[in-house]
Amino acid sequence: MVIDEKKFREIYDEYYNYLCHNLSFYTHDVGTIEDVVQEVFVKLWNERHQPIDNLKVYLSVCAKNKMLNHLRDEQNRKNILNVWAKDANETLKANDCIDKKELAWVLLQAIESLPPRCHDIYLLSKEEQMPYKQIAEFLHISVKTVEAQMGIAIRRIKEFVAAYYVIK
Known about the structure:
By secondary structure, the chain is mostly helical. 81% of the residues lie in helices and 0% in strands. The longest helix has 43 residues, at 55-97. The chain has helices at 5-23, 30-46, 55-97, 100-112, 116-126, 132-139, 143-167. The model has no long low-confidence stretch (mean pLDDT 87). It is built from seven helices and no strands.
């Protein structure tokens, strides 16, 4: 079925409320439901030259999948924000307990204790703000090597700082 503007308007008028009602079983957030239904109709318009055997089933399945994807993405976003908020709260608590000058000194010692190549890559990334690709080109190594060395640097710095504060 080829859909022109007139046919699209008829389909929209016929199925909009139906899709909104179906999606209300997943959420009661009217804004989210309307957004998802709009996305379904945009998809239909973009694929208007593709053959569709059963339009009602196509729209229903598309709406359900888009809603489930939206809910999954929203849950992931909330989880990330919760982790971030927890980390930020712990950081704030830690900042109240740590002498910042001492921490800066410990971090400097940790960086200086890194192996030479790891040290150089870390400083280029953190101090010079160079992207990994640029560091790789500058040092004539692969981006994967830069990523691996940064991982090593960060792990060793964390271990150094943790050991310093446990021993102290």
